[in-house]
Amino acid sequence: MKLKILAFGIAKDIFGAPEKELEFQDGLNVIQLKEKLEQDFPQLIKLKSYFIAVNEEYAEDDQTIVSTDEIAVIPPVSGG
Predict the structure, then answer these.
(1) Contact at 8 Å (CB) between 9 and 44?
(2) Of 17, 56, 41, 25, nearest to 8 (Cα)?
């Protein structure tokens, strides 16, 4: 299945674009998505933490993703 993945903050810099369309296996869950993204974009591993949002809500690692889902990579937010 093809997924469009939106990137915010430093993730946009890591992807080199505000969004990427990538091919994944059917039945993918969030942890598998993270593993694939970290394989394709190793700089993600250097982030202390980042979140995956599915349909504008933070996702749990075991959540299954379908092709119609909107996926976003949300890096840690800093500020003061």
Answers:
(1) no
(2) 17
- Region 3-24: mean pLDDT is 96
User: Which two tokens mark 5?
Assistant: 């993945």
E-only strand ranges, 1-80: 2-7, 19-23, 51-54, 57-58, 71-74
Q: What percent of the chain has pLDDT over 90?
A: 89
Mean pLDDT of 64-74: 96
Q: Return the number of other C-beta atoms located less than 10 Å from residue 44's C-beta.
A: 19
Mean confidence (pLDDT) of the chain: 93
Edge-to-edge, what's the strand order for the sheet holding 51-54? Answer: 19-23, 2-7, 71-74, 51-54, 57-58
Which among 42, 46, 49, 41 is positioned nearest to 17, based on CA atoms? 41
| Cross-strand bridge partners of residue 53 | 58, 72
